Amino acid sequence: MLEHIELFFRSIFIDNMVFAVFLGMCSYLAVSKKVATAVGLGAAVIFVLAVTVPMNWLLDQYLLRDGALAWLGPEYADYNLSFLSFILFIATIATMVQLVEIVVEKFSPSLYNSLGIFLPLIAVNCAILGGSLFMQSREIATLGLAFNYGVSSGIGWFLAILAIAAIREKIRYSNVPAPLRGLGITFIITGLMGIGFQSFGGMLTGGSEEEAAVEETTTAAKTEEVGKKENKKEIDEKEISYNDAINK
Amino acid sequence: MALLSKKDANLIKDPLADNNPITIQVLGICSALAITAELKASVVMAISVLFVLGIGNVVISLMRNIIPSKIRIIVQLIVVATLVIIVDQVLKAFAYELSKTLSVFVGLIITNCIIMGRFEAFALGNGPWRSFLDGIGNALGYGIILVIVGFFRELLGSGTLFGFPVLGNPINKTGLYAFGYENNGFMIIPPAALIVVGIIIWVQRSRNKALIEDN
């Protein structure tokens, strides 16, 4: 239960889709001129992420990852199809989006009227594919957690687009320098909001870890150097294991 | 250029400045921001997109008369995904460390709006050669912004370029650091990319008044 709660808040605030990893920026910038449309798109993103991330989790678990085909029989245990994940994930997403569109149109015309126009846009929203790819690279353990991850990162995206749409509606009345109007000021506001969201970084770490996290953000040069070394070590280790995998 | 007619040359020149995919068309922002903390990653990303967009535009343009318009999105996605898998495998084989830095963002070239946008807007209606030039031009326009952002973020944030220390050594206090210069840790964190791009847009639009939006 605790890990669900942690993942939920982590995906909304710390690893926010827009502010921490810049996913779905295109539609975020294009569809954030009015709050009403932003809400529609945000809801559609939550919905599609909640459907596609668990789907792709199942695909990854039982088809793509190293040794995933073991359930077919021991002779299939050596296959590693993970190089196919891009094409399978995007095919799943495109199909699901189409399917969701048809189902929603059939059973709930009112929801279709509010979500409908956004659904085709979503197939090429990087937040959706990014959700699935991050699910894969962070090795989320269970189907329940994958669903949780989909929903909560969708909510994070929703919050971000809602906030920027509200700000953009207001900023129209401000005296922004002419060359910055529109796109430029939106970028800078998003950057400032991102800095704000960075402060959630220490939210979920308790005790000594928290101190370490704070130190890491404040004393730039020194810890950076250490962090780089650690990173390098990690990369080296990964490289070794990768080379082993190749040799096998 | 003797090689290209004037119209064809404009296909390459326009996206570099006045019709830049990032600052004017607002396409392909996601990857532009996420991986620009280092110059090297920016350059590799720009080359990957150049490859995918150049080849992809030609492929789509060759198939433009046989793709049924109802399923064209899926066809486009499959073409891009195939090309991106090639890029990803090549990176994993020859630059494993770098492919770790880029992590999921190589995969996200698939949903990079520049690619789908150029397929939709250009390759579906033009011949292969012109589509190729258009792809190259747009990818270069995208790459230029990436390199500019990467340059400033790495120089100001870590004092290095391509990983080489150009401003001296911050630990031993040599070079500029001897005069009390400090790296700006702010440039390393992700939101700084947004602000740098915002400033690029500002500079570009104040030089060319025709680009200013009227809100």
Automatic annotation (TrEMBL), chain A:
Q: Which residues form the signal peptide?
A: none
InterPro entries under this entry? NqrDE/RnfAE, NqrDE/RnfAE_oxidrdctase, NqrE
Stated membrane topology is: Multi-pass membrane protein
| Span list, region Disordered | 211-233
* Start-end of Basic and acidic residues biased regions: 222-233
Q: Which Pfam families match?
A: Rnf-Nqr
Main localisation: membrane
Q: Which residues cross the membrane?
A: 12-31, 38-59, 79-104, 111-134, 146-167, 179-200
- Name its GO BP terms in alphabetical order: respiratory electron transport chain; sodium ion transport
Q: What class of enzyme is it?
A: translocase
Supply the EC number(s): 7.2.1.1
Record's subcellular location: Cell membrane; Endomembrane system
Q: Name one GO cellular component term.
A: endomembrane system
Q: Which family does it belong to?
A: Belongs to the NqrDE/RnfAE family.
Record note on quaternary structure: Composed of six subunits; NqrA, NqrB, NqrC, NqrD, NqrE and NqrF.
Concerning HAMAP family, the annotation shows: NqrE
Protein's UniProt name: Na(+)-translocating NADH-quinone reductase subunit E
From TrEMBL, chain B:
Keyword set includes Cell membrane: yes
Membrane topology term reads: Multi-pass membrane protein
Which GO terms of type biological process are on file?
A: sodium ion transport
Keyword Glycosyltransferase recorded = no
Q: Where are the annotated coiled coils located?
A: none
Q: Name one GO cellular component term.
A: plasma membrane
Against InterPro entries, the record matches this protein to: NqrD (IPR011292), NqrDE/RnfAE (IPR003667)
Residue ranges of the TM segments: 43-62, 74-95, 101-119, 140-164, 184-203
Enzyme nomenclature, EC number:
7.2.1.1
Task: Classify the main location.
Answer: membrane
Q: Which UniProt keywords apply?
A: Cell inner membrane, Cell membrane, Ion transport, Membrane, NAD, Sodium, Sodium transport, Translocase, Transmembrane, Transmembrane helix, Transport, Ubiquinone
Q: Which GO terms describe its molecular function?
A: oxidoreductase activity, acting on NAD(P)H, quinone or similar compound as acceptor
Which transformation does this protein catalyse, written as a reaction? Answer: a ubiquinone + n Na(+)(in) + NADH + H(+) = a ubiquinol + n Na(+)(out) + NAD(+)
Q: Give the gene that encodes this protein.
A: nqrD
Q: How does it assemble?
A: Composed of six subunits; NqrA, NqrB, NqrC, NqrD, NqrE and NqrF.
Q: What does this protein do?
A: NQR complex catalyzes the reduction of ubiquinone-1 to ubiquinol by two successive reactions, coupled with the transport of Na(+) ions from the cytoplasm to the periplasm. NqrA to NqrE are probably involved in the second step, the conversion of ubisemiquinone to ubiquinol.
- Compartments it resides in: Cell membrane; Endomembrane system
Q: What is this protein called?
A: Na(+)-translocating NADH-quinone reductase subunit D
Look at the named UniProt entry and state the broad enzyme category this protein falls under: translocase
